[in-house]
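Figure 2 data, in text form.
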Amino acid sequence: MLSKDQMLVLRESPLFRDIPQKLLDKLMPQAGIGKLARGETLFVQGDPAEAIYIVLEGLVKLVRITPSGDEIVVAVYSRGESFGEAAALQSGVYPVTVEAVEDSLLFHITARNISDHFRENPELAMAMLASTFRHNHELVMEIEDIKGYTAAQRLATFLVALAPVDHGACTFLLPYDKGLIAGRLGMKPESLSRSFSNLRNIGVTIRGGHVSVADLDQLKVFSDSERQSDLHAAPCA
């Protein structure tokens, strides 16, 4: 049984926010909730894709494992974010491995139970399609970042998105450890350290997991101007 807070997470998630509450109520008896301990694997790449997931609490990472055994971080998802839609709805296999970065609680529902409602509720089908498009768009933008922008540019953009204010000075916590941030931004840990050093020149300092930005507007200008001038520069990662 979902708590009021968990139901609100579902209601406000990009996957379900545009469907009627009555339809969401219909889906609930067919859904479930599962706990995932930190470091625990939900499924591995190549497993049959049967369910769609939404993070209710915690943090999970989606990774690809290369033939040589290296781990490539595809995405990191937190509260309200969904994954597995495309693979599950086409009865394929999961293209990634999902692992909990911290203790997590996940909502899950089978693709079959979702698709059974498509004919009478086309808005649900549109929500699934929109979610798939959104994930694809995010991947395209990330590929563009990795191929076209330097490591410092990618880090600057990441920090701007985390800032709790729109202007001026601010301090905030990194959402997860630096190793995962490096993987998320498509760089090696040593490249991340160099990038933080480069950003010191424009007032960005880090101590432990705390980031201080002297002037967020300056960081934005750096990010935007560098993106324009170095659009075709080789990335430093």
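Caption note: Confidence is low (pLDDT under 50) at residues 228-237.
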